[in-house]
Amino acid sequence: MADEAKPAVVGGDDDGAKRQREEEEKKKKKSPLLHVLIIGAASAGLTIAQGLKKAGIPFSIFERDPDDESRYRDWGMTVHWSAAYLTRCLPQAILDRLPETQSDQQLDFDTITGFPVHNLETGEVLKEIPLTTPRRVSRKRWRKVMMEGLDIQFSKNLVDIEYPPDGSVIAHFEDGTSAKGTTLVGADGSKSATRHLLLGDKAALTTLPYVMVNTVVRYSPEHTKQITDAIHPFCHMGYHPEGTMFWISVMDNPDPADPSQKTFQVVSTWEGALSAEESASSPARLAALRTRISRYHPPFSHFAAWIPDDTPVHPDRIAVWDPLPVDHHAGRVCLAGDAAHNMTFHRGQGLNVALQDAADLVEAMVRVRDADDGGAGLAEAVRGFGELVLERGARECGVSMLTTRLVHRWGEFMRSPIMSGAGVSALGKGDEKK
Ligand SMILES: Cc1cc2nc3c(=O)[nH]c(=O)nc-3n(C[C@H](O)[C@H](O)[C@H](O)COP(=O)(O)OP(=O)(O)OC[C@H]3O[C@@H](n4cnc5c(N)ncnc54)[C@H](O)[C@@H]3O)c2cc1C
Hints:
Elements: H1 15-30, E1 36-39, H2 43-55, E2 59-62, E3 76-79, H3 83-89, H4 92-95, E4 114-119, E5 125-130, E6 135-138, H5 139-146, E7 152-153, E8 158-162, E9 169-173, E10 178-181, E11 183-186, H6 193-199, E12 206-217, H7 221-230, E13 236-240, E14 244-252, E15 263-271, H8 276-280, H9 282-294, H10 300-305, E16 316-320, E17 333-335, H11 350-371, H12 378-407, H13 410-415, H14 417-420
Parallel strand pairs: 1-2, 1-11, 2-7, 4-13, 11-17
Antiparallel strand pairs: 3-6, 4-5, 8-9, 9-10, 12-15, 12-16, 13-14, 14-15
Flavin-adenine dinucleotide is lined by residues 39-45, 62-65, 75, 77-78, 156-158, 187-190, 193, 214, 267, 337-338, 345, 348-352, 354.
């Protein structure tokens, strides 16, 4: 079996700490049959790991990348309705550190109640989108904070899963090592190896016909100041009648006295495909963005024109995976987060749903442990969890896909419930798949 999770660190020898230690010892004694193997150390996997650790359930967590930084791209993500699931999974020490994960460390997100959506042709505000206690986080800093206190095994690329006759599960890694446990959770993102091992060709992503630019920009200090003065503190975004979405928001703002340290996330999408030259070259992709945005209403046109020439623009694509049922091998394997439901980002739901998955999985494992029946309920608990993930994933993938289609078709978008005031939940059933 892979190394046991260490018990949660407790403080000094006061009564509270002693009680906590006793509680954790008791929980450990009740969990001898559970050992969860988590594949992927990012939003979903780390939240599951923290939740299991808090509950005293043994686990091991494996990450393909060699360390916590080198290959990890940054972008902003908005945590909104899922905050309650975080509270369920995270220890107080990490909840206290959440302000460190903010994309704009200087912003009091409690003051944010929504953000304006603009017409990129005229500059007018089309609508205010209300938001309840949103927190925009940097994916990189979020991950770093969530790693606190976890023993993550890096350079572990999952390549195979084995289901031995003794009812356990074995994860095999590219480096020839393996780890044995009771349940393997594939939290390995949109291209999930776990999903491919479970479903073969049916696990493949579908690429949608949109161009996507998603980059982090360090503007000149002078432009940084002008942009800061011009934009809404949460984000400045809008849609153009010819079918473009454009978004700019603060990505990092560590020192208010030093604008050279401030960066912005710039995201834009439009229907179509990159040319061969644009697919091959970052400067060509930047030129494509500039050309597209140059004729838009200022200040949006400036936000693209002012991007420094050496800014890397990655060859991103918008790809989705609509959830399908998987064989859970009697409770020995399941999926969570983007691995289970890879949706388009225009509705900002992927992380929020991943956090709900994490909290539900931890609860399922706690129920198995507390049943005290030698793990007999594991298969049923994982099946129930899988059903929840499938149902919510299918619904969210559908509505997100519909939102993506609508925001690139101006006429339909203006008539849609999103803009008419009824909200996304009023989108007609069945519309999602159109
Ligand atoms: C531009 C953009 C904006 C977004 N904005 C929002 C937003 O505002 N709100 C929101 O809720 N969501 C948003 N999302 C979606 C959100 O980023 C994802 O849903 C979320 O990050 C998924 O987390 P995850 O842990 O499931 O997957 P990932 O973050 O992809 O993590 C998967 C992990 O598994 C590891 N891994 C992969 N393969 C293997 C393997 N074979 N073996 C071991 N480890 C492996 C990877 O290295 C990685 O660390 C946005 C996405 C984009 C692209």
